[in-house]
Write a structure and sequence with these properties.
Blueprint: E1 3-8, H1 11-22, E2 29-38, E3 48-56, H2 68-85, E4 89-95, E5 100-106, H3 110-114, H4 119-136, E6 142-146, H5 149-171, E7 175-176, H6 182-192, E8 198-203, E9 210-215
Parallel strand pairs: 5-6
Antiparallel strand pairs: 1-3, 1-4, 2-3, 4-5, 7-9, 8-9
Helix pairs in contact: 2-4, 5-6
Length: 226
């Protein structure tokens, strides 16, 4: 990690968080003050908030693989959304094959941002994607995480899918998952894709759509996988 944006009630507070994330000393970084605002809704609640970008000297300031202009738009959107909630935070942005991955580190408010069963986090992600598309004119696939919650959940889902695939292989009986979001269904399909004798397909409509793990036969070849 070469660059990070953090916020706090003072520059020193924001800088302290950034140096910890970068594992760097003050003399090794450049500091840019991006914004000084009032946290909370329209400044009614909370006090002053300062947002800074801290970069290791000699770095370009953007995460590897992430277009710098897009990265800056995403950072501003996150700052605005969390500013309305009065949340001090820092973020890192990474680019993978199929998504821009944004991880938020908050000051002890991860539970608030995640919400029950990740519902608040899903809403934040939806808003971020919609605003990004509105401002840039480009459709986006931005995954928003808080404190590694999404990655932990995805890892557990992969482990469960592979464990159940082994059971299906042994018993030759299908297993139906509970209804899942499209992104979670895709994780299961990919987790089982390398099995020679087990496959997956999708059944149901709308919010009730779910994945079935099944023994592979000619009858399963053309079933939907979405």
């Amino acid at each position: 990690m070469q660059s990070i944006e953090t916020s706090g009630k003072t520059i020193d507070q924001a800088l302290e968080k950034a140096l910890k994330e970068l594992a760097a000393r003050k003399e090794e970084v450049d500091i840019e003050v991006l914004e000084e605002t009032h946290s909370g809704l329209r400044g009614i609640f909370g006090g002053k908030m300062v947002r800074i970008r801290v970069s290791r000297r000699g770095s370009a300031g953007a995460a590897p693989g992430v277009d710098s202009a897009s990265s800056e738009v995403i950072r501003k959107i996150i700052a605005e959304v969390l500013g309305f909630m009065g949340v001090d935070h820092s973020i890192t942005i990474e680019e993978s094959a199929d998504t821009t991955f944004v991880n938020i580190t908050s000051s002890g408010l991860d539970g608030l941002l995640i919400g029950r069963r990740g519902e608040t986090l899903a809403s934040i992600q939806h808003v971020v994607n919609r605003i990004f598309t509105s401002r840039t004119g480009r459709h986006s696939k931005i995954t928003v995480d808080v404190g590694g919650y999404v990655r932990r959940k995805h890892r557990l889902l992969v482990e469960k899918a592979q464990r159940l695939a082994d059971r299906v292989r042994q018993t030759q009986k299908e297993y139906d998952f509970e209804p899942l979001k499209a992104s979670e269904r895709r994780i299961i399909h990919l987790a089982v894709a390398d099995y020679d004798d087990v496959t997956t397909y999708t059944i149901g409509d709308g919010l009730l759509r779910k994945v079935v793990i099944s023994p592979k036969t000619s009858a399963t070849d053309d079933l939907p996988r979405d």
